[in-house]
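Annex B. Sample input.
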Amino acid sequence: MQFNIPTLLTLFRVILIPFFVVVFYLPFAWAPMGAGHRAL
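Annex B, continued. Sample output.
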């Protein structure tokens, strides 16, 4: 597989998914905000 910028960015984002899921479910008030969740 050729590793160019778009491929590396995609792999990086896929690797970060579990991190954001864990941050979202942390029992702190700022956890949803840290995971990028915005209330409507």
